[in-house]
Amino acid sequence: MNKPSQPFLLRLTSSQLPNWLVGVLTCVFFVLLQALVFEIEGIKHSYSLYSTTFFFILTTGYLVFISRIINNNHEKGFFKLLSYTKLNESEKQDHIQEFHDQKLSWKEMLIPICIGLLHGFFVNGASFSFNEVPYPFLKVYSIIQILIIWIMIWQSTSTYLRNMTKMNRLSRAIEIDILNTEQLMPLTSAGVISILAFVGVYTILFIESIDSIELYNPALLPLIPSIVWMVVTPLSGVRKRIISAKELEIGLIEKGIEGDKKALEKSRIGNNLENINVVDLMTYKRLITATPEIPINIPTASRFIFYLIIPFFTWVAASIVDKAIDYLIG
User: Fold this and answer.
1) 189 and 261 in a common domain
2) For residue range 229-240, what is the model confidence (pLDDT) as tens digits?
3) How far apart are CA 226 and CA 114, in angstroms?
């Protein structure tokens, strides 16, 4: 059996150090690296100059920290789903091996590298000469920052989607139980927890650039599609399976109401038909009809809404603080 491989972003937090500490050390590393660039270029160290890269520094540290949290949540949900299946041990081991193998091919990594380099050169000029452009090392470092952000975002997003796709595939081995759709809740939870990566990055963006953040800002355009993508991926096909199971169960109940007790033996309540009457069957039918077509509960729904409003509240709070400081200074 081959040893499972993880992307570099996850390997950073594979040690015994706490995830938050690795994230902090990542931030410290890039602050020191920027200080080194300033020293090489002879640039005076000042808070205003360091603040220009706060978004990059905080985002890299945050992604290192949150990627491990999200991946661990996915792994926990995966094994919970696995416990609900009726697979034999060999089949379970195959799914476990597949889930743990998160290797990203070098061909796939060419995509964020190319995008990052193009983005970096577009921001810093299509070309420059070390002898002609002021602060050439700072220019190169700026391009490297953009490249690193693109690679980290790509690695994290790709890992989340792979995990959730594997969880979705495993869920097909779980028989739909209309009275217990909680078995499929790890799929919904995986999608909700995954949007934390996007929400966190956008929250940092709102804090970092209070004056430039407007509702029409192009940076906000990918937010909603990304969130939808993360939530839909693990639930792909699940709704159809639940609807199909509901229709089958309701059909059996209706036959039972019409007097076909034999049909009820194939239903979910087939082992509890003693003393059941038409009123009971009609009540049971309403219960099945009201069953949500996606696995969701109040805590998960509340968490999803809370995650979505974090960036907005951050923007409002940061704007209030910013205006208050301006008022006090003025």
Assistant:
1) no
2) 888 888 889 999
3) 21
